[in-house]
Amino acid sequence: METIRLSDKTVEMLQSVAIPLRDDFDSVIQRLVQCAHAGVPYSKEWNRPIDERADGLQSDGPASLQLHDLGHTKLVTATFGGKNIDNPNWNLLSRVAHCEAFKKLGDLDAVGRISGANVSPDLIEENGYHTIPQSGFSVQALSAPLCWNAITRLAEAIGTTVQIQFRWLDKPEAQNPGEVRELRYPV
User: What is the distance between the alpha carbons of residues 16 and 112, in angstroms, rounded to a whole number?
Assistant: First the structure.
């Protein structure tokens, strides 16, 4: 491992984009480089690169949604690339999207850079990882907002569609408890 020296100014800048009690210098630099390779801006709030293209979320009007509004939701129906997903949940849809992207791109590192998710060439069933046996790799579980972001990025990269119907859970933290909505990408 190489030792590098950073100016006080650089340390200050890295600390400004770090997530307290979570990041060290290596993880911040690694994420910034990932963003640069994927060609997307860095977002401290989501601990993942978030791009600025349309992602199926409505951006204005009375029914507008933001990415964080997808918290406390459950999928009702889902299709990826025109294929229905039985008994869908956010992370199953994410695994399907990662699998389809890997089939089309053939490069697991590229799939991980595009989605922003942690992927591993190993078959792992711990630390939130779930294997995709038919593809021979594992993907770490994500929150609903991060799943939607990863799924739409992968759909864009391989030129396919995704459509979901979801319901907010009946809990006070949910944006619209009990309400059902539909999202699709591309819009």
Answer: 25
Residue range 58-85: mean pLDDT, rounded = 76
Q: Are strands 137-140 and 83-84 parallel, antiparallel or unpaired?
A: unpaired
Give strand pairing partners of 132. Answer: 137
d(CA 47, CA 172): 25
* Gap between the Cα atoms of 82 and 29, Å rounded: 37
DSSP per residue, 79-127 = EETTEE-SS--HHHHHHHHHHHHHHHH--HHHHHHHH-S-EESS---ST
Shared domain for 34 and 78, answered yes or no, is no
Q: Same domain, yes or no, for 46 and 92?
A: no
Domain that holds residue 163: 67-185
Q: Is 168 inside any structural domain?
A: yes
Give the tens place of pLDDT for each residue, 132-174. Answer: 888 899 999 988 988 998 999 899 889 899 999 999 999 988 8
The residue among 177, 187, 185 whose CA lies nearest residue 74 is 177
Continuous segment of H or E residues that includes residue 158: helix 144-158
Chain centroid offset of residue 110 CA: 14
Query: Environment class of residue 98 by beta-carbon count within 10 Å: exposed (0-12), middle (13-18) or buried (19+)?
Result: buried
What is the pTM (predicted TM-score) of this model? 0.68
